[in-house]
Amino acid sequence: MTASTQKVTNHKEYYEAFYNPKYDFLGQSYASMYPNLHKYPATMLPQIGLELLKEFKAKKTNLLDPYCGSGSSFVAALDYDIKEFIGFDLNPLAIMISKARLTYIESSHLLKQYKILLDNIENNMSKILDFNILNNITNIDFWIEKQAQKDLIAIFNAIISIKNETAKNLFMLAFSETLREASYTRNNEFKLFRMKEYESYIPNTYKIFNRKLKNIINIYIEFYQQKLRGINLSVYNSGFYNTDKKFDTILTSPPYGDSKTTVAYGQFSTFINEWLGFKEARKLDSKMLGGIKAKKLYEKGLMKEYILEIAKADNKRALEVSSFYENLESSIKSLPDSLNIGAKVFFIVGNRRVKNIELPTDEFIAEVFCNNGFKHLNTLKRKISNKSMPLQNSPTNKIGALSRTMNEEWIVVCEKL
Ligand SMILES: C[S@@+](CC[C@H](N)C(=O)[O-])C[C@H]1O[C@@H](n2cnc3c(N)ncnc32)[C@H](O)[C@@H]1O
Fold it and tell me: Which residue's C-alpha comes closest to atom 27 of ligand 1?
């Protein structure tokens, strides 16, 4: 325990957590240090990742993130001089953001592609459009005004005719943000709700797109591009699988509960995932950790007493919660074979409350690692000041609002034996 850490928990702990104010990053937001190219729910503050890599002297060889989302762990590790990354995520949008943000393209080349894109858009405005793509979006007229639909098609067609994949991915982020902003979705929420005043909402789709596009290109060139020379990134739109590569570090923030009652990653990403032809866009949340209710209660290790306590109040909830821990356990168990001895693992997680019972997910993670050939090095507790999280464990899901139960985070650090 260092001078600045203090013990915080008073319930019986199997894996002690220590509060270290250094990790609060008080007054710093994500964007103040790492500007965003695209919104994403429940992102991990990269500042934390960088500090962890330094404090625990992680090797500078490579980094795996099995739930990589928008790639915050990778951007943290870039500043620690790691150059090789592998990421996995079930959400196609997450993969698109990570890839666009972490792939190098020469500025002059990007700007040339930008000019071609603007010319393409200009030309498309007068063309007869193929409306077929609109069939991808469920109930499109409920969500997007007619003229905006046409404008979106014209912009999208202009983007897909760009040959350079890296430039195209960056432009697609601007399209995705535009698709959301031009729709009738209430914009500051993760879940899909139509705005009350939708009939009077007539978006200027081209204007939105141009603003987003300029912003993304500026941020990419000013902030990310210089760091990306020589990096090697592979990201996969799937759950983690063994790629035969061995890693020295995992830095990740897994979901802290099922998507239905915590953060609806799938719902947040529905429009762009559907537009790009991802057939299971509406089922995505049920494919994520804890997405399908378990048939029996999870009764292993330290989580058993908590699950049984929930079951006393509500057996159905206990089965839902069981499914999350069962899935998280098997997901963690698939990792050790891909790690070298001495590899450091950093899991940043929230401990949610169900039926007013706080679930020690941090301790659960430490326990599963310890049962699978790791030693627990430390659990650090931090106060969240700026994370984008839902208001409660409820469908409200307001971006930027903090949940009463989620204003702290735990960082579990383990080492492979
Ligand atoms: C807390 S978020 C990660 C956020 C990321 N650290 C960032 O800053 O953008 C958790 C991620 O896990 C993904 N996810 C959920 N279940 C998964 C699974 N079984 N396999 C892989 N990814 C999963 C979600 O799509 C989501 O992007």
Answer: 69
Shortest-distance atom of ligand 1 to CA 43: 8
Closest ligand 1 atom number to CA of residue 327: 19
pLDDT tens digit string along 245-270? 999 999 999 999 999 889 999 999 99
Q: Residue 4: pLDDT above 60?
A: no
Q: Is 346 touching ligand 1 by the criterion CB < 6 Å?
A: no
Pocket test for ligand 1, best of 47, 265, 323, 352 (most atoms within 8 A of CB): 265
Q: How far apart are CA 164 and CA 415, in angstroms?
A: 41
CA distance to 96, 293, 305, 400, per residue, from 280 (Å): 16, 19, 36, 28
Radius of gyration of the chain (CA): 22
Q: Token pair for residue 375?
A: 């030693």
Q: What is the pLDDT of residues 358-409, one digit of tens each?
A: 999 999 999 999 999 999 999 999 998 754 444 444 433 444 333 444 589 9
Burial 289-326 (b: 16+ CB within 10 A, else e): bbbebbeebbebbebeebbeebbeeeeebbbbbbbbbb
The pLDDT score that the predictor gives to residue 12 is 61
Cβ-Cβ contacts under 8 Å for 357 (sequence gap 6 or more): 306, 309, 310
Tell me, in angstroms, the distance from the centre of ligand 1 to residue 70's CA.
Answer: 9
CB distance 34 to ligand 1 below 6 Å: no
Model confidence pLDDT, tens digit, residues 80-138: 999 999 999 999 999 999 999 999 999 999 999 999 999 999 988 778 888 899 999 99
Sequence-separated (6 or more) residues with CB below 8 Å from residue 200? none
Q: Which atom in ligand 1 lies closest to the alpha carbon of residue 40?
A: 9
